[in-house]
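Dear colleague,

Thank you for sharing your sequence with our group. We've completed the structure prediction you requested, and as agreed, I am returning the results in plain text so they can be pasted directly into your records. Please verify that the sequence below matches your submission; if there's any discrepancy, let me know and we will rerun it promptly.
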Amino acid sequence: MKTKPFVATFTILFAATALAWQTQEYKSGIVWPEPPVIDPGPPGGVPSDAIVLFDGKSLDAWEGGDKWKIDDGIATAAGGTITSKQKFGDCQLHVEFATPEEVKGSGQGRGNSGLYLMSRYEVQVLDSYDNKTYFDGQCGAIYKEQPPMVNACRKPGEWQTYDIIFNSPRFNSDGSLHTPGYVTVLHNGVLLHNHFELLGVTSYTEPSRYIAHADREPLQIQFHGNPVRFRNIWLRENIKPLVGAPPGLGAKAGGQ
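Please find the predicted structure tokens below.
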């Protein structure tokens, strides 16, 4: 049976209308500022908007840095913990480290150090390659709070990387907690913690709890008696999402 002309025309028009409806672009109406342009640097290099905390030449950016040994672009932990002269809040932190190639000790006594965000919240550094210890104290742990999802350690003496995204806690005027801190940690490119909610200040002797502090505090790298080596330490503070404005109001300058 032949299709009637009216039915055929209607079918074609309906299909065309449906196709146009399916491909109609969604627009939010938000007026976005332009994302700033940065140079990401060469592979393994430093982004142009980063604050360089150790470039292989000096530890002038650190209190106590004169106690550590610098040789051939590498800083070796010695003599005490170092504390950044600048204070930071929310940030992206990149650190490269190597535990001693000559293995001495075991458990917590082997290649021990730590990164203390805001001088309070520790991401553990340890030689956890074929080295047993308590899981919330092994390399990549949020110390005494959360073990890493996996053990991604390289062999002793080999260079390793930490890439950490940190959202600092916020406190009310009366000192009570307004918003907890969160941390994301990648070890050698492998995700260990995904936006983990910090329980409070790192402590060896008691459960973690929050104690009010300023919105910006120094970074610390621990000396725990082991000659852990460090290089290429940098930090970015530009980690806030862009903020758009409704139509007619224009975009907020800088988007931050």
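Summary note from our side: The first strand starts at residue 51 and ends at 54.

Kind regards,
the structure core
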